[in-house]
Amino acid sequence: MSKPSMDRLSMNKQAAQHKQAFDEPLWWGLFSAGGVCFAVILPAVILFIAILLPLGLLPAEALSYERASALLFSVPGFLFVGAVVCLPLFHAAHRLRHGLFDISVGNDALNKKLMYGGAALLSVLALGLVIAGMLG
Amino acid sequence: MNTEQISTKRVSTHNIRTKHISVKRYLPDNPAEPYWQPYELPVDDSTSLLDALNHIKEQLDSTLSYRWSCRMAICGSCGVMVNGIPKLGCKTFLRDYEGEIRIEPLAHFPVQRDLVVDMEIFLEHLAAVKPYLIDDNPVKAFDPNAPETYQQSPAQLERYKQFANCINCGLCYSACPQFGLNQEFLGPAALTLAHRYNLDSRDHGKKQRMAELNRHEGVWSCTFVGFCSQVCPKNVDPAAAVNQGKVEAAKHTLIALFKG
Fold it and tell me: Cα(B128)–Cα(B190) distance, rounded to whole angstroms?
């Protein structure tokens, strides 16, 4: 590294010293929770909804329209959407944000807003649909 | 099994052959770009990379510069890149390499000359996390008639022992892509030593260290690549320490939120 960039480094250092990252534990917590859901719950969901059901290995009425909507538009359904859609969204957003930093695309402050903002928006949409179904 | 079969399985000092080593040279007095210099030298099964560099320095080319001291993976000064992987010269044996061996200075550090790098930034990061016991008051007030040493149970020692084996060689910094992207990242060894002292029953400096760890350039710059733990010559497992540090930093933040 050249001398001027070392000087710039030490200048940045003074400015950034001891600035606490209060948001990072939140993103990391959501990332961790999402990772668990991705690894534990999603494979089971894919097995039942995307493999067993289309292959006709489950009873036809297992997820009939009436039964599926009754299951989804309920408190357990709300938690199900949170675990299968929202938390994995934040997990993916965290990976994308760090991936973009790794390949030096955009800047981290903007990427953070876009990625976590996108995850939050889609989460609100998903949970909002469940609530709308519960009320409607 | 005859004697010849046995000797080929053992480390032999009779099995002398020639190996090719290319060293990335950089001479600051000579403003040219760094260049690769090939050397050809006799090696046997016991020749370490450090032995080979010493042979080059003594017999072939006295202008080659590199750091070394202890020859037994304790001082941590002979770190270099071997075919692109950070290694200690004294712990790397040429018998394990086929074909040409390419030696470079440690990645992510400014090169001063040949294989000698400037580790200033690493030492700064190390100092920032206060890697020493803070307010380590003895169990009782000091009594000259019955002096008492610190007490620590084997279980308390076990909590941090693995993380205490760091020799500050800097291989993990060369392995870390995040340190490569952002030199302000405290990095594997510094974060590991911070964790080591946080886990020490004699220490009371956790609060001071958490302020350093809980920065963007602290534990949160780590993306758990894990290469640091693979290259560590002392099996310290910095990746585990840094990620345990994330849990601690998250707890620290939660407590700070409630305390206001």
Answer: 8
User: Are B203 and B156 within 8 A, CB to CB?
Assistant: no
Q: Do B246 and A9 touch (CB under 8 A)?
A: no
pLDDT tens-digit map of A14-66: 544 568 888 999 999 999 999 999 999 999 999 999 999 999 998 878 889 99
The ipTM assigned to this model is 0.80
* CB-CB neighbours of B133 under 10 Å: 14
Three-class DSSP labels, B3-58: HHHHHHHCCCCCCCEEEEEEEEECCCCCCCCCEEEEEEEEECCCCEHHHHHHHHHH
Check residue B218 and give its pLDDT: 96
In chain B, whose CA is at the least distance from the CA of A3? B110
Nearest 5 degrees, angle CA A31-CA A34-CA A37? 155
Residue B251, amino acid: K
List the structure tokens of B96: 């394990």
Residue B190 Cα distances to A135, B2, B72, B239, angstroms: 54, 51, 23, 12
CB–CB of B214 and A24 under 8 A? yes
* Whether pTM exceeds 0.95: no
Neighbours of B202 (CB within 10 A): 16
CA atoms of B215 and B192, how far apart (whole Å): 15
**Residue A16 to residue B184, Cβ atoms within 8 A:** yes
